[in-house]
Amino acid sequence: MNVLVTGAAGFAGRNLVENLKNIRDGKNRTRPALSISEIFEYDLGNTAEELDEWCKKADFVFNLAGVNRPKDPKEFREGNFGFASTLLDTLKKHANPAPVMLSSSIQATLAGRFGTSEYGLSKKAGEELFFDYAKETGTQVFVYRFPNLVGKWVRPNYNSAVGTFCHNIANGLPITVNDPDVVLEMLFIDDLIDEMLDAMEGHPHRCDYPTAGEIVDGVESDGLTPLWRDCGRYCGAKITHKATLGYIVECLNRFRDQPKTLMMPDIAPNSFEKKLYSMYLSYLPKEKIAFDLKMNCDERGSFTEIMKTFNHGQFSVNISRPGITKGEHWHNTKWEFFIVVSGHGLIQERRIGSGEVIEFEVSGEKIQAVHMLPGYTHNIINLSETENLVTLMWANETFDPDHPDTFFEKVVK
Questions:
Q1: How far apart are the C-alpha atoms of 410 and 377, rounded to whole Å?
Q2: d(Cα 351, Cα 330) in Å, to the nearest integer?
Q3: What's the start-to-end Cα distance of the chain, in Å?
Q4: Of these four, 6, 44, 324, 393, which has the most CB atoms within 10 Å of its CB?
């Protein structure tokens, strides 16, 4: 399959092209139904002759080209309607039946505040052009209306408030939030990529956009919310996220502070926070990619906290010098994993009130996780005379200096 991507140098285009390459080159094997031969990347730097040649060869077309921040509003129609017309005419010239995907906007609904949007009007005109093309030629068209597109590589200080916030906060620059209660609906680029690959495989998610005020299943439509149904005229990505500007900034400030607090925010699978954190990290300047951790050092070695979480404890790394014993304490409810990753050591545990000592010889040559049981005093001994013992430690709760739940008692009396 040959794939033509217009607007290939833009935010969505770059992400799509790189993911298509992963499939083409066998790096992504999660889409066995897709076999990609050539990827034609069309943007402003390409020629009309190249577009003509690629329209002749393409087996699937993604039209991501468009104008969203012109100097003159008249450029909206030229960029969002004029080029689409050229693209479809070229495909028609070669009688190419390749399916065509159009990247439109939720503003094309012309609902609510979008009713007088020049951008929305130009996108709406482009949509109708594609629907007419489908009627005339019998070609499949997939028309998508996107909300705010966000994710890695989105251009800051352009047309994405979220991209601007990520860039500025990551780089220590000021931001302006006029109304923190404004709600944004966001479509993350990786969810969009999944949907576009679904479309290539022939099973896009389809929907309609009932007119604002229309009653559908007992609910009044706002004109912006898609109604999902298999026979829908439009297509859409089903996974979007809504959040206020205030909450977005709150999250980004927590991400910024993580190297100081070591507190990793809750990033549940497929959550908004998880995706926003990934987006934020893509804007970090070189000097912030690596950061120092506080090593608590003494003659025995060092202990360094690595990461803390709200609900899943904390991670630390312990380095013990040759012959050193560390620990010799117990906890009421706290429990831990000790995982030796380098060196040769011995872990000892004894239940409080008992004389029986249980032992585990551990080594970086055979990595194991050993429970430090509640109510058991425990230690870890470096058995080597020459090498440090390096242990990754996980505790089920972050350390609270006001309630440390840690009590000294030797394992072997």
A1: 7
A2: 9
A3: 73
A4: 6
Ranges of beta strands (E only) in 274-343 are 295-298, 301-309, 314-320, 325-330, 336-342
Active site residue 119: yes
Is 393:317 a contact under the CB 8 Å cutoff?
Answer: yes
pLDDT digits (tens, 9 = 90+) for 57-101: 999 999 999 755 545 555 444 545 678 999 999 999 999 999 999
Instruction: Note the pLDDT tens digit of each residue in 253-265.
Output: 999 999 999 999 9
330 contacts 377 by C-beta, under 8 angstroms: yes
Going across the sheet that includes 357-363, the strands are: 357-363, 344-351, 376-382, 325-330, 407-408
- Report d(CA 242, CA 238) in Å as an integer: 13
Q: How many CB atoms lie within 10 A of CB 346?
A: 16
Note the pTM of the prediction, 2 decimals: 0.91
- DSSP letters spanning 161-230: HHHHHHHHHHTT-----S-TT-EEEEEEHHHHHHHHHHHHTT---EEE-PPTT-EETTEE--SSS-EE-T
Backbone phi and psi for residue 374, each to the nearest 5 degrees, phi listed first: -60, 140
Instruction: Kindly state the DSSP code that residue 253 receives in the 8-state scheme.
Output: H
